[in-house]
Amino acid sequence: MTSGSPKGSPNGSPVTTAVSGGVAQVALNRPDKRNALDRVTLSALGEALARCAADTNVRMVQLTGTGNVFCAGADLTEMQAQAHASEEENLAHARTLAKVLSALDSFPKPTLARVNGDGYGGALGLIAACDIVVVVESAKFAFTEVRLGIIPAVVSPFVLAKIGESAALRYFLTAETMSAATLKQIGLAHETVPADELDATCGGIIDAILKGAPGAQAAAKALIRDAQLAPSQRGVAAMDMATRLARLRVQAEAQEGFAAFFAKRKAAWRPD
Q1: Count of CA atoms in the C-beta half-sphere (13 A) of 164
Q2: What is the pTM of this model?
């Protein structure tokens, strides 16, 4: 399997895919932009996941980032432009992320997030939508949306399923930086390891997955989803949350948040 056409990144395709030994290595490939999720990248990721789901040679997917950052979340330059777009255009934009998260969350094969560096905003949605997560212990994370005048809307159905209401209330409202240890403590990571142990740890999990029967693993994933009420509705909920986000992006508070960010000043609601 090869990746799609080289759009969105001077280093090639914004998402690369390589299959070996039953494992599809899917990598966000915009290291010059900290692997930020613009629409082109999200579309490429969605296409890569669809190909992997259909490829009988793929037993599982490992998702990672190129370079030293896993994913910086939404591409803020693109989001700044969306502040001047209509609510309908914002809705279409937000639904692009919703579709990718839903596809990853409902993926029929095991998924492993190899989190090789920092992750913010939408990156935490990708992490939450993966089955198993291994994080390098030096990485930092945050739900930064409220500091821009918006909310972590689209990722919330997937994140809340992992961390619960209590942790969400703290970290959605404060936008505090979280360590890898915190990510594990609240349920978004299974393992935190030194950088030089990341590949070995992921390799051990991959070996364990490949020992299982593909049909049984697919059935086990379906069982986990169907045994609960909320998870089966995550994709629908994400679409609803996309509507909420689209409405917020065109409001004065969001425009002030982005204006302050790019002007490197405090937003109007920040204390002196």
Answers
A1: 5
A2: 0.88
